[in-house]
Design goal:
The complex is a heterotrimer of chains A (115), B (246) and C (138). With 115 residues, chain A is mainly α. Helices cover 78% and strands 0% of the residues of chain A. Chain A has one domain: Fumarate reductase/succinate dehydrogenase, transmembrane subunit (3 helical TM bundles of succinate and fumarate reductases, Up-down Bundle), CATH 1.20.1300. Chain B starts with a strand and ends in a 5-residue tail after the last helix. The chains are: A mainly alpha (115), B alpha+beta (246), C mainly alpha (138). Bound molecules: iron/sulfur cluster and FE2/S2 (inorganic) cluster. Residues 149-155, 171-172, 175, 214-217, 219, 221 of chain B line the site of iron/sulfur cluster (SF4).
Chain lengths: 115, 246, 138
């Protein structure tokens, strides 16, 4: 077999970790911040208390992993969606660079904002 | 014979047409007939020129798979009546080159199958005098499911990834590799990982899951591939983090 | 077109079909699959929103208040409803499929897939509940 060694085990691990983490945490977060509060179903906590909770060092670490791994999850999955759904396999290098590069850049920006 | 059902069969006779065409036949709609019986009726009574494969007529040989109304099905295991009032559209299994009418070429799979070493690999065979390799029922249960494959190719037909990338090793071959990986007597794990942990091997799979949906033997190739990926990722990380371990 | 050529080289007359680009619009199951894959975009969007919230939080109270005001606009509410739908679909498919990759054992006993999925759901409900309570109690 002439096939070359794959990097996919690495990205697949990030994909899996991000998939699990986002499945666990995002629905509640999105519901509260994006829907329930804006529509007035629940009263959002005051600035100070949101700040206290979200800026707790532990919360920042969780948030960083959630963001970064979810971005890699999205990048990996979306990359294959482009292959499967639009048959762009011939552009695979470009697509891989854009997808994973985007996730990496997003993670760096996130780290910068968080600390 | 009271009622009949229309079967539209895809015909491809390379010496006559450059593309398949549909031809319709009326066959008796008998409650005890499967689609394969309908095809045999056509072959015997209406049109002897129709070509298709079959053998066991009981879901064991795996040679009678075809697309029925667009879905891959074993034609000996699908009753005509469940498609009444028809018409029933029969085409050769998709994703394979069509040799003639409903006959496809499976060489691609056969070649891939041998590359994954679907047999018990031993570093050293023990001499016959030492007796057999024993296995407990639990150990058998670990891989039994994956050993039920009859090479019918329905999963390849159902798999869009294989349709898009013919290089992909594909569901049944990976499931069969896993069948031997999980066999307590086998020592070929590393060999097979070397062969399958490639972009065209397990990492092509996007878990569409259709292979497991259509499999007549409940092999669950999709599950086999996911477990394989987990094993592949684990061994990859090990090789990065603990390179001195072999 | 002839992409399987390497194994049917000597059979030019064998008939081969190339999958159309939009092969997946014809069957419901295929559309569902592509939709599942596209939830990746909703996941990415959601975490970007989280980062934006963080940035506002860290900038000033005014920035945070203006962000919460923006989020009240029908446009963003609509976006978030769509995103939540997609993320929920991601959550359900993820929990249902995870047991396929992971075989867990207790001694010799293989934990049935349903229990693993059930465990995931239970954890999810508890975690979501905790987040919710923390949020409403300020
Ligand atoms: S895994 Fe199932 S569908 Fe695929 S070839 Fe084997 S028996 Fe047929
Ligand atoms: S004829 Fe043997 S499986 Fe159908």
């Amino acid at each position: 077999m002439s096939a070359k060694k794959s990097n996919d085990p690495f990205f697949w691990t990030l994909f899996g970790a991000g998939g699990a983490l986002s499945a666990m945490l995002i629905p509640a977060f999105l519901f509260l911040f994006g829907i329930a509060t804006p529509l007035g179903w629940v009263e959002g906590p005051a600035y100070e208390s949101v700040k206290m909770v979200l800026l707790h060092p532990l919360a920042r670490i969780v948030a960083f992993f959630l963001v970064s791994l979810s971005l890699f999850h999205g990048a990996h999955r979306f990359r294959f969606t482009l292959y499967d759904g639009l048959q762009l396999k011939h552009l695979f290098q470009l697509i891989a660079v854009i997808c994973y590069g985007g996730a990496l850049a997003g993670s760096i920006v996130t780290g910068y904002i968080l600390w | 014979m009271a009622s009949t059902i229309t079967i539209e069969v895809s015909r491809y006779r390379p010496e006559e047409e450059s593309e398949p065409v549909f031809q319709s036949y009326e066959v008796p709609l008998r409650s005890d007939w499967v689609i394969l019986d309908g095809l045999n009726y056509i072959k015997n009574e209406l049109d002897g020129s129709l070509s298709f494969r079959w053998s066991c007529r009981m879901g064991v040989c795996g040679s009678c798979g075809m697309m029925i109304n667009g879905e891959p099905v074993l034609t000996c295991a699908a009753f005509l009546e469940s498609y009444a009032p028809g018409p029933i559209r029969i085409e050769p299994l998709q994703h394979f080159p069509v040799v003639r009418d409903l006959v496809t070429d499976m060489e691609d799979f056969m070649g891939k199958l041998t590359t994954v070493k679907p047999w018990v690999v031993r570093e050293e065979e023990k001499p016959v005098e030492e007796g057999e390799y024993k296995q407990t029922p639990e150990q058998l249960a670990d891989f039994k499911r994956y050993s039920m494959c009859i090479n019918c190719m329905l999963c390849y037909s159902a798999c869009p990834v294989y349709g898009l990338e013919p290089e992909f090793t594909g569901p049944a071959a990976i499931a069969l590799a896993q069948r031997y990986n999980l066999d307590s007597r086998d020592e070929g794990n590393d060999d097979r990982m070397e062969i399958l942990s490639h972009d065209e091997g397990i990492w092509s799979c996007t878990l569409v899951g259709e292979c497991s949906e259509v499999c007549p033997k409940d092999v669950d190739p999709a599950g086999a591939i996911q477990r394989y990926k987990l094993a592949g990722a684990t061994s990859w990380w090990k090789s990065i983090l603990l390179p001195w371990q072999k | 077109m002839n992409r399987n050529a390497h194994h049917t080289l000597h059979h030019p007359k064998w008939y081969r079909v190339q999958k159309p680009i939009f092969w997946w619009v014809k069957r419901f199951a295929d559309i569902r699959f592509i939709f599942r894959e596209l939830t990746s975009l909703a996941v990415a969007y959601s975490v970007i929103l989280l980062v934006v919230i963080y940035r506002a939080l860290l900038t000033s109270e005014a920035a945070y208040t203006s962000l919460t005001t923006t989020l009240r606009e029908p446009f963003w509410v609509t976006i978030n409803v769509i995103a939540l739908g997609a993320v929920l679909y991601h959550t359900f498919t993820w929990f249902n499929l995870a047991p396929r990759a992971i075989v867990m054992r207790l001694g010799k006993w293989r934990i049935p897939d349903l229990m693993i999925a059930g465990g995931n759901y239970a954890a999810w409900i508890v975690i979501s509940g905790v987040i919710y309570l923390a949020y409403v109690s300020g």
